[in-house]
User: What shape does this take?
Amino acid sequence: MKKPSIPLGLVFSQSGPYAMMAGEMRKSALMAIDEINQSDQFDFVFAPRLRDPAGVVAAYHSACDELIRGEHVDHIVGCYTSASRKQVIPIVERTERLLWHPARYEGFESSDNVIYVGAAPNQHVVPLVLHMLDHISGEVFCIGSNYVWTWETNRVVREIVTSAGGRVLAERLLELGETAVDHIVKEIIERKPPVVFNTLVGESSYSFMRALHQAATRANLTIPMLSCSLCEPELKLIGSSASVGCITSSAYFESIDGAENRAFVARWKTRHGADSNLSVDALSTYVCVMLLARAIRRAGSADVGAVRRAAANHRYDSPQGPIWVDPDNNHCFLTPRLARSVPGCQFDIFWEADAPERPDPYLSNLDLAAIGTRPEKSNDTMTRQSTHLRVVK
Assistant: This one.
């Protein structure tokens, strides 16, 4: 007997400044769809409906409008940047559809019509800033792309840093896709900040990291870099020398040592090639499709309201670990991790939380006063801990 087909919208840019990352996300969505369609565990199949906004922010709204009105799609998986998500939210809210959003983001948002599978700020921004304060410096130079992701992330960084008695030395912004970075690199080399916090996206970030590495090498300087978005496939694009040593916060790294992740990585490489690498955004996209499929199975229907209720608090043991949707805000419980980029386009995980952390998109539970009264680390302790690379279980 033929299984009923459920249309599923996939909205990922295949060209533009972040095409590589969005392309990886679309590949993982199609991988998840194939696995679901071939599984006896589901009594339906997904029929993917692909849209390519080509990196044009306004095109995301029209792409989703076509899917909803023309293809009668109830569920959409997509959007890499927050700028694109902001374009989509009004139409899914107005038409009572669900957007399954895979990417890490800046927080300060909660919609009944969005399931946020990527990390909220307490799950990736806060752990990285606290690590910086404890083990590197309380003074930081911020550079990022000129849109909501950087604006909100820098605001959180500034509040935490100043509460701890530190200071943001500078905030420099580039337009999305801008690769003219020499003037900012020159300023960094001249000012010699103790650490750089990078929220650039796509080609802007790759150009900046290569240029800063070259300039710092010529000047015989070592300037640590932090990122909430750098991932494995991007390390290849940046280059082996310039990409090594960046400290990154993420809920997923390809190097996670667990049976579920090893099996997932093996399936990915069988499908996409032994030299291919996974990213947290690709994995989160896969998880989006899997969470949706399980919710439809539990609800017995693709009805948006029924699926939303069925998705709440349903635990899925994913390659990144246990994950489930918090019904209070539609964000996911995730396990925060910190890692350092190493040769071979991989990350060496040196810290992870003991258990999945409840999402706090508005940082309502962040105690800035407590941050300001934490004991200071000695320089010796900071150096020893910041270079101690091991997974903390």
User: Anything to note?
Assistant: The chain has two domains: 5-119+256-333, 122-253+337-386. The radius of gyration is 21 Å. Residues 351 and 392 are 5 Å apart (CA to CA).
